[in-house]
Design goal:
heterodimer, A: alpha/beta, de novo design (two linked rop proteins), 5-stranded mixed sheet, B: alpha+beta, Arc Repressor Mutant, subunit A, Glutaredoxin, 8 helices, 9% strand
Chain lengths: 420, 208
């Protein structure tokens, strides 16, 4: 549904979008009562695609109505979770579907202003998105009841956290706020605000056009509709796969050509680096919200990062941990100090200078970060560490007994065996 | 160098996009980089004045975000993704290769001012790994050699075009203006999607 016309060369233009019925769903929604639009999205079963899976319609329903305050819609396009690469190609190929989704959502929650907060490191996507907004204004879709502004970030992963995003959008350093109050009550400028992921909002026009039942007919019992799975790593064909929720990695690999030749799956993330690692034991886990949670991880952003047996799991986890340390905003002690110490210990382990006692220390540190940090960044930082020790303790120990990393990093590159 | 009347008018227009003017601080910082290439004292002072803030408040914001630079970068700022997936697939080798080839360390600039180098975090293109960015445009599926060829093309004044971006690589200052919301007229150039983006769609059309 989302990716249907991406293969047309001009898919990002307003002409192409209208050629396929674009901006008819917003016309239909604007003729409806806002509460009926919220009900329709509730009935569809659409859940947030940014990671947490909260029902989108219910989130909209939390906005107090008739309170005579300004309401705001904010779209989170700050896609930065390692492995996550779905919103960026979506916006490059079809920015108008997000604009139409914004028009519908703003009408539903009675907001006159909407913002798209996009990460700053994607110049061409910013160009396309701003051109699309300009074209939508010129065509009268924007500016008649809703104003839409593209706000460009500047390289801070933490701004993907919704309250840090709001602080950033207000013109401050991007640091998370204490909740409650939740954004639905006191969000942007302390006004009722809905913050939704790009894919969630981009899914709305099709739901309005085709109805809740149509959407409900896809997916699993509690995870409705289709979604974008992003396959990357040691596979023959990496890429974006739109499929009904509940597909398994085994099915995706079979469809797409499998692992790179002569290699086998070692570990993978179901939804970005903040979701606990899976191994080849988990090939048949249904990739919906409940299925992945039931197997001890999270569906997250459906960023399937695939690593084969040439990859050192300690190196992989060290690198993610360095990322969390770098991106920690510094507001709370467990995350700021904890991620720093995690990096020191993991570096020693990867260099073969660690000891078995370091594993206990890592787990103890994780225990003091998980659930004790101000926001989910700290929690996420512990996921790769605790899950990798759970499944690959022997490999950590091998670094200790070997006195060095037992892997050859060249073997895991794509140009292995090629004179690069 | 003082800001011109035209530049100040652009800044006022940026402020006018927002219900509250402090929200304009980030696009104004991007715009300031499009004029001076990095955030200098003059830029901080002008933004403070326009937004009725203290210099320290604007500095606090500019130093929080890694895309705002406190010293000049190259005309072409090259970022190599060394987050786990790209690093494993070849990003580490590419970054090491470019450091050696250019004779600079992380955050270094070549003596001719043409190229600066930085290792960056995940840039949302993992299906095109290993990824190199230049002025935040995509160079997908790189190798050590292709990355060296890319920086050589920059130093000779004729940079290779991005794989998913306009037909010609714009300069750091020009890209900063785009991030501030200035329309450079290039939105319709370049592909709508690369092959990995279309893989699922292709499979479904094949009836899979």
């Amino acid at each position: 549904m989302l990716s249907a016309h991406w293969d047309e060369k001009d898919s990002f233009t307003i002409q192409a979008y209208k050629r396929h019925g674009g901006y008819t769903a917003s016309a239909k929604a604007l003729a409806m009562d806002p509460d009926a639009v919220i009900q329709l999205v509730k009935d569809s079963g659409l859940r947030g695609r940014g990671g947490a899976g909260f029902p989108t319609g219910m989130k909209w329903g939390f906005i107090p109505q008739g309170d005579n305050k300004d309401h705001y819609l904010v779209v989170n396009a700050d896609e930065s979770e390692p492995g996550t690469c779905k919103d960026t190609p979506l916006l490059m190929a079809n920015p108008h579907v997000l604009i139409e989704g914004c028009i519908i959502a703003a009408h539903a929650i009675r907001a006159k202003h909407a913002f798209i907060y996009i990460r700053g490191e994607v110049t061409h996507v910013v160009r396309r998105m701003n051109q699309a907004i300009e074209d939508a204004y010129a065509a009268g879709y924007l500016g008649n009841g809703v104003e839409l502004v593209l706000h460009v970030g500047a390289g801070a992963y933490i701004c993907g956290e919704e309250t840090a995003l709001l602080d950033s959008l207000e013109g401050f350093r991007g640091q998370p706020r204490l909740r409650p109050p939740f954004p639905a009550i006191a969000g942007l400028y302390a006004r009722p605000t809905v913050v939704n992921n790009v894919e969630s909002i981009a899914s709305v026009p099709a739901i309005v056009a085709n109805g809740a039942e149509w959407y409900q007919s896809m997916g699993t019992e509690k995870s409705k509709g289709t979604t974008l799975y992003s396959l990357s790593g040691h596979v023959v064909n990496p890429g974006q796969f739109e499929a009904p929720l509940g597909i398994t990695l085994r099915e995706i690999l079979e469809l797409s050509g499998g692992m790179r030749k002569g290699h086998k799956l070692k570990f993978w993330t179901p939804g970005g680096s903040s979701t606990p690692l899976f191994t080849d034991e988990h090939l048949d886990v249904p990739l919906d919200y409940e299925g992945v949670a039931g197997a001890g991880s999270m569906l997250g952003t459906k960023a399937l990062q695939i690593f084969d047996e040439t990859t050192c799991v300690v190196r992989a986890v060290l690198r993610w941990t360095e990322f969390y340390k770098h991106e920690s905003c510094g507001k709370c002690t467990p995350c700021r100090e904890g991620t720093w110490w995690l990096v020191q210990i993991l570096r020693d382990l990867e260099d073969g200078k660690g000891s078995e006692a370091d594993l206990a220390k890592l787990l103890d540190l994780c225990d003091n970060i998980m659930g004790r940090s101000f926001c989910a960044l700290g929690d996420g930082a512990t996921s790769p560490i605790t899950s990798s020790i759970k499944y690959f303790r022997d490999e950590y120990i091998a670094h200790v007994t070997n006195g060095a990393c037992p892997f050859d990093p060249i073997a895991s590159t794509l140009f292995e065996g090629v004179d690069a | 160098m003082a800001y011109t009347e035209d530049q100040l008018a652009v800044m006022e227009a940026i402020i006018a996009r927002y219900p509250r003017k402090r929200s304009a601080i980030m696009p104004l910082l991007h715009y300031s980089q499009s004029i001076t290439g990095y955030i200098n004292n003059e830029g901080i002072e002008i933004i403070s004045e326009l937004l009725e803030l203290e210099n320290a408040e604007v500095t606090a914001v500019s130093t929080f975000y890694t895309q705002y630079k406190n010293q000049p970068v190259g005309e072409y700022h090259v970022g190599v993704c060394t987050n786990t997936l790209c690093a494993v697939m070849g990003g580490d080798a590419i970054f090491a290769g470019l450091k050696e080839h250019l004779g600079v360390e992380n955050d270094g600039v070549t003596a001719d001012g043409k190229v600066s180098l930085e290792h960056i975090e995940c840039n949302a293109a993992c299906d095109y790994a290993p990824v190199v960015m230049a002025n935040w445009e995509f160079y997908d599926n790189q190798t050590v050699q292709s990355a060296k060829d890319l920086v050589d093309s920059m130093r000779s004044g004729n940079p290779k075009p991005p794989t998913r971006g306009p037909n010609k690589l714009v300069t750091w200052k020009e890209a900063s203006a785009v991030l501030a919301g200035v329309n450079d007229g290039l939105a319709n150039e370049g592909v709508q999607a690369g092959e990995p983006t279309l893989l699922g769609l292709k499979l479904s059309k094949e009836g899979k």
